[in-house]
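seq:
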Amino acid sequence: MGDNQKYRVDDWVSRIIVEPQSYADGRIFEAYARLRSNNPVAWVDAEGFNSFWLISRYDDVQSISMNDRLFPYGDRPSIFMDAGSEAWLRKVAGKPYAVSSLVTTDNPYHNKLRLITQAWFSPKNLKMLEDDVGRLAEITVDSMRALGPDIDFVNEVALYYPLRVIMKILGVPDADLPFMLRLTQEIFAPADPDSMPDGLDIDAPSFFGKALKNSMDQMHRYF
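struct:
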């Protein structure tokens, strides 16, 4: 821990990094600019979170991401998670994440997961989806035109088009779009008042971990 303190960033940057509002109001850009200039390899001590390394330069991120032996993914959460949620997940799941996926696992298990779908995403198989994806794009553009020159791009386009493509790949019927959208929003933004899961206390130390596991359980039951 003593050596890590040499790379510790100031309290202002630490707060901005873990504060959701900073990503909405733009303060995060100033924080990362400061990090890239002064602390490209930084140790972050933020209240309520287990300390972590933060890498802010592209070349460093690329190098680290290609070496999972020296920099394993599975030891810590791959997304921001408060200390209480991480401890809760480790207790109930035995690991700091709710589901084993490509972004949370290391080799050899990581490669085993990739091989499950790798062949499906070959150029030949993707070609089979081209017409369906094109039709979805046409429907989306037609909808944009019908709404007029001023639209909410996020809520009218960005939320739906990628999700519809993924649903088409997975064979999920269009009728289940509302459920899939809600589940996606719960996974990526469980603390958002518009998508917060029912029955969970946002002020509880383990809120994020419980919300993530709740969403993953729903997904497992569906598929």
